[in-house]
Design brief:
This protein is an alpha+beta fold and 316 residues long. The protein has two domains: 197 residues, 3-Layer(aba) Sandwich (Chemotaxis protein chec); 45 residues, no CATH class. The strands form two sheets. Strands 1-5-6-3-2-4 form a six-stranded antiparallel β-sheet.
């Protein structure tokens, strides 16, 4: 008994300082494009699972978080079916977990029963060979929707390597490595379950630069809204600043300036000027005067790169 108490004391929870150090060692680079892909996967899953189970299905994204791999694994259900999946040609793996309520409700529907009856009989037992096989088919259906979501950034195929029921046998990354953990809530005729995905950052290395983009070749909204937004942008006004000259002065000289001092800028009438938009150089031009005597700038060079800009709204 005393030995058990000693072991319990040694297995203490980490302190706040230790958690801060642990979190600072992880690189949680946001992947906004992955969030868009998951949202599209959720929309397509509603139709795919409905066709697969012949039941009324509702799918929603409950959580999308960046965690260490160990914390992501701790978030998986204690009783569930874990599919270890390969991602080719990325050369990495991901995990898809079906909790017991989701699995039994889906199996009951696939076999012609009622999902509520299956959910009331959930117990922490091992899965049979039939349950594993049908669970793998469910995973393959969802992996197909995930693959279609990734098509806009590159070709990839997902396949199930093996099925596990113990998460300690489904280790695919280092405990301290960064990963994405997400949870989908699924309802079959009112019976709710969940599906969880764990995607290590190492699996996404080849496409991570593309996943950091907010939009990737996507049109914003429907056609009517896109035209309306395009017209509003084209008729909006912006403020341009003409930068005529920059000159360095000693700090002692600046501190000694007083009212009435004259600062020589050494500017000619055709001195070059730079046009700035919100501090960004847009054009370079030459100073001059119009016939009415007012100052003007004749643009001689474009400084911004049109091809390097990813426009969400384009012209028809």
């Amino acid at each position: 008994m005393m030995e058990q108490d000693a072991e319990a004391k040694t297995e203490r929870a980490p302190s706040v300082e230790e958690l801060i150090i642990q979190m600072s060692m992880l690189n949680y680079e946001p992947l906004p494009m992955l969030e868009v892909i998951v949202e599209r996967m959720v929309l397509s899953l509603t139709s795919s699972l409905k066709n697969f189970t012949a039941a009324l299905v509702e799918v929603s994204l409950a959580h999308f978080e960046y965690k260490s791999y160990s914390n992501a694994m701790d978030s998986l259900p204690a009783h569930g079916l874990i599919a270890v999946c390969n991602a080719d040609p990325w050369g990495g793996q991901l995990l898809m977990t079906l909790d017991a309520r989701f699995l039994y409700a889906a199996l009951e529907l696939m076999l012609g029963g009622q999902p509520k009856r299956a959910v009331t009989k959930v117990s922490p037992r091992g899965f049979t060979a039939i349950e594993r096989r049908l669970g793998q088919r469910l995973v393959e259906v969802m992996l197909t929707d995930l693959r279609e979501g990734f098509e806009q950034i590159g070709e990839v195929s997902f396949s199930v390597e093996r099925i596990e029921s113990n998460r300690h046998f489904a280790i695919i990354s280092q405990p301290s490595s960064a990963s994405v953990w997400l949870q989908l809530d699924v309802s079959f005729d009112g019976c709710r379950g969940s599906v969880m995905l764990v995607i290590p950052y190492g699996t996404l290395d080849q496409v991570r630069p593309l996943l950091t983009k907010v939009f990737y070749g996507d049109r914003l909204g429907d056609e009517t809204w896109r035209k309306h937004l395009s017209n509003r942008i084209e008729t909006s006004t912006v403020s341009l600043t003409a930068l005529l000259h920059e000159q360095s002065f000693a700090m002692t000289d600046v501190l000694n300036w007083t009212i009435g001092d004259t600062i020589e800028l050494r500017l000619e009438e055709d001195h070059p000027a730079t046009m700035l938009l919100s501090g960004v150089p847009m054009f370079r031009g030459v100073m001059g005067k119009k016939q009415n005597g007012s100052a003007a700038i004749r643009i001689t060079e474009e400084l911004h790169e049109k091809d390097g800009t990813n426009h969400a709204v384009d012209h028809d």
